[in-house]
Amino acid sequence: MCGRYATTRSEADLSLLFDAVTVAEALGPSWNVAPTDPVPVVRQSQRHDARVVDTARWGLLPPWAKDPRAGSRMINARAETVATSPAFAPSFQRRRCLVPADGWFEWVRDGGKRQAYYMTPADSSVLAFAGIWTMWREETLTCSVLTTAALGDLAAVHDRMPLILPRERWSAWLAGGGDAPALLEPLSPAELAAIEVRPVRPDVGNVRNNGPELVTAAEPAVAPEATLF
Prior knowledge:
lyase; lyase activity; single chain; globular; DNA damage; hypothetical protein yedk fold; protease
């Protein structure tokens, strides 16, 4: 799963990177995004007839959800079932988005020890997580991040990872419709190899901590080959 990630680029920077119009509120950088936090997303807007950088609550709330707390259980949608799940399929068909990120966190456990790892592009480029969105009660934009089976070195940290879309696939993803298997293809081996697996301090485990020190490399207490958390 992807339960914590970092997104630190400004709305203006995201507009340039994604060739989009900004309609989002100013959120500021976050090195420790947690479920139900407001996050930037890029989606296709009929109203603006363009891509827009918007703000969404992380954790999809289907229109029939009665309690906003339900979103904390729907931060991720599995790529293997997103096209058929009653909660996620309508958004997958018509309301897809990109979720900009610098990288994401996972944990490895070995006995009583627990080590956080940060996965991030070695060249510091932006990541675009495949996302879906919907409106809850016609006033709250909410989203989920798609996950897929982890591959390569990333599988030594966790068995799942965000579905990451390279730039050449952004337009097809945002367009809606399309061939599901092609849309849900994982990264190529070369693209996966460009992602660094970085041990970091345990501070990220506390949602109240938020700063660039959370993504700074640290001496690992647990190697990635230990038991997956």
